Amino acid sequence: MKGYHIKGGRVLSGKIETSGAKNAALPILAASVMTKGENTLLSCPQISDVDSMISILTALGCKVRWEDGLLSVVADGIRGCRIPDHMMKEMRSSVFLAGSLLGRCGEAVISNPGGCDIGKRPIDIHIDGLRRLGAHIWQTDENIVLKAGRLRGAKIRLAYPSVGATENLMLAAIAAEGLTEIENSAKEPEIVDLQNYINCCGGRVMGAGSGTITVEGGIKLHGCQYRILPDRIEAGTYLLMALATGGEIMLEGIGREYLDSLLQILDGGGYRIRCSETGIWAKACGFERINCMIRTAPYPGFPTDLQPQMTAFLTKNGKGSIIEENIFEKRLEYAKELKKMGADIEISEKQVIIKDNHILCGVPVAAKDLRGGAALMIAGLMADGYTDIADTKYIKRGYSRPIDKIRALGGEIIEYDC
Ligand code: UD1
Asked: SS3 for 217?
């Protein structure tokens, strides 16, 4: 097992070139299975979840290769529709292949997907929607088997605007005859990016971002060259990291609209923020104070994927703030580790309350999921002394070259064998 050894107390300042978004790249890679010809993806993040998706695509018969930072995928040679269980368990996004394989091959054999343990992550909304499109789905002892028969467009209203279910249904609907309307669909920017990719491949999808998505089915997709949108969660993480250490940061290639719910809170606390066409600049001057109530919610609400990093940040100067997690039931595990570092916080089932602000102390802590791990990196960089974070594999799921980026900002971090 590997760990990160961090020396706290350095001020982090500089520029960050935002990577392509994990949560856009993974469904786009799943969608590529439905295309004929070459796909060239620009700005695809080099993270372990993308590696896991590449392993699945390769096992299914796709030709995938990295060249000069570009990822090329050719799915012409797909020869299977069964995803091995150990590959399904590597990450949550393996589930998107249900929709795309159903569309491409008329059949998919999957098992329950893995991913970070942040509470129950059912796929009932995915399954209900795929059934509405005409898929026959049943569970065996080991697998979930999906057969298309003939997919037909339908009007589907999601019980909850699930990001994953919206994406899965968009993919299956491409192969369905006629129009599909997905109501109460998720509005995340990554959904818009998936729509843009599909349309770049010749598909006709409209409405992403509005809450109702219309997919014109029965169109064969071709490969295309596509640039993945910037990762708002990565950008938000480095923004909080720099400000937490009293620094100044320029996030290149990302617009205010993607991080508005976070920037409003920082604005309100006195941080200096300027946004332009080239990116977001922010600076801490040392006298900022935040006292806020944060409730995670689907986009454009405060992202659950920035909740742990925000809590770590608020231990410095967010006395009285309350952070409430409303999307996943077990997403406050990291807060117990913050307590070990001396954070004066109260943790209940859904909330963390910042009771007082103290300088954290470096101690050994454990990352148990991706964003919780990122929160511990922020805490370690703010803390007095040395913090050892085990285990780095969660962080590498979603952050591209974190050591290089943190060092480029002036942070002291090394990876070691625990
Ligand atoms: C996606 C993101 C993840 C992010 C999350 C919230 C990807 C690959 N992952 O996850 O990084 O943290 O959105 O922004 O994009 N639910 C059900 N039944 C379902 C599906 C979801 O009850 O069939 C519930 C979940 O348990 C959760 C909520 O709906 O409480 C939101 O889940 P969803 O939006 O689907 O998140 P993911 O797609 O898993």
From this structure: coil
* pLDDT for position 92: 78
Nearest to 362 by CA among 388, 394, 398: 388
Q: What are phi and psi of 342, to 5 degrees?
A: 100, 10
d(C-alpha 149, C-alpha 5), whole Å: 53
pTM greater than 0.90 (yes/no): yes
Note whether 222 and 35 are within 8 A (CB): yes
pLDDT 10s digits, 277-332: 999 999 999 899 999 999 999 999 999 999 999 999 999 999 999 999 999 998 99
Instruction: Indicate which residue's Cα is closest to atom 39 of ligand 1.
Output: 164
Q: Ligand 1: does its nearest atom lie under 6 Å from the Cβ of 164?
A: yes
List, in order, residues 6 or more apart from 388 with CB less than 8 Å away. 3, 4, 5, 6, 362, 363, 364, 365, 416, 418
Name the strand (E) or helix (H) holding 50. Answer: helix 48-60
Give the atom of ligand 1 at the shortest distance from the alpha carbon of 127: 23
Which listed residue (116, 201, 224, 292) is catalytic? 116
Q: Are 19 and 45 in contact (CB under 8 A)?
A: yes
CA of 271 to the centre of ligand 1 (A): 31
